[in-house]
Amino acid sequence: MRFLHTSDWHLGRSFHRVGLLDAQAALVDHLVATALAHEVDAVLVAGDVYDRAVPPLSAVELFDRALHRLAEARVPTVMISGNHDSARRLGVGAGLIDHAGIHLRTDPARCATPVVLRDAHGDVAFYGLPYLEPALVRDEFKAAGTGHEAVLSAALDRVRADLAARHAGTRSVVLAHAFVAGGAASDSERDITVGGVSAVPAGIFDGVDYVALGHLHGSQALTERVRYSGSPLAYSFSETDHRKTMWLVDLGAGGEIDAERIDCPVPRPLARVRGTLADLLDDPALTRHERSWIEATLTDPVRPAEPMARLVERFPHTLSLVFDPDRGDEDVVASYARRLEGRSDQEIAEDFVAHVRGGAGPDDRERTVLRGAFDHVRVDTAVREVTG
């Protein structure tokens, strides 16, 4: 049995205010083309199809096109809902869509009802475990505890009971959306901590031939049988060093695993650069990053004038600006006082706006508002001094 394991599409998400819909459409094209080129028997999507519970219409339209293309290609597809998805909305029409070979598993109560596909060696049961929010599913599973491990263990007990009732030799694949211990996180996943504990042990999946995980955005194999596909696109600069892929998995007659990574299209490379503004603007070694999306960390002891505007001249796709001044052992309070020396209230306020916005200072209208506020305070203070 050959299948593609992917997850965390996050349709509708942007990257630092840059829309990614075209890149996500290219991903769908790539997914369908890869499925056909490698003659896969199934496509698995392990949650976070959308980026939020109520996605924008453009994301819904893209999802609809993806389902139609997979159905027209006659590639059976199993999808589960993740913690970003609205399980109820994603699962609308699931019963009808089943007949087209698109199997949406968003109802926790149906986690032990597999999609059964057959190859030359027999049956493979695909169990879809949607994201299990403990507070919402604890009663359904009569879980012994209140955390993710308790509810996921209870769900897997149901899976194992169903598998045990099937004929010998039935192989098993579980799709799950969870934070499994040993996995490396990035900045772009939403925290799913409950009661201070978010990770579940990989051993919770013992006895399953392959576990297709979603949630963490870096592709990684926790064991031979337990793997994250990672997100097919980068959604934070913490993913700069990620290689974005899908897993192409061959499941042998006895449950043997042969997996390889298939690269996903990259809309634009990411780069993190660090140094003084002058160094970043002049360093010839950074030429290779001039077409990348950039996160720049400036180490100038004193904030330079118009840093974002100057960076964009060389790096037109600079999206994030961070200030981390290198002042050595200089006294912070004294240094701050020196940096303010000779600067007007207006200039200090504009610097603050730029700081909290990652380098984007106020526009003309906002400067006018700030100026008016300071003028009002000055007049009010003068009146109080005269009358007071």
TrEMBL record:
It holds the Pfam family SbcD_C. Residues 267-355 form the Nuclease SbcCD subunit D C-terminal domain. Residues 1-217 form the Calcineurin-like phosphoesterase domain. Keywords: DNA recombination, DNA replication, Endonuclease, Exonuclease, Hydrolase, Nuclease. It comes from the Bacteria. GO terms for biological process: DNA recombination; DNA replication. Signal peptide: none annotated. InterPro entries: Calcineurin-like_PHP, DNA_Repair-Maintenance_Comp, Metallo-depent_PP-like, Mre11_N, SbcD, SbcD_C. GO terms for molecular function: 3'-5' exonuclease activity; endonuclease activity. Belongs to the SbcD family. SbcCD cleaves DNA hairpin structures. These structures can inhibit DNA replication and are intermediates in certain DNA recombination reactions. The complex acts as a 3'->5' double strand exonuclease that can open hairpins. It also has a 5' single-strand endonuclease activity. Heterodimer of SbcC and SbcD. This is Nuclease SbcCD subunit D. It comes from Streptomyces niveus. The gene is sbcD.
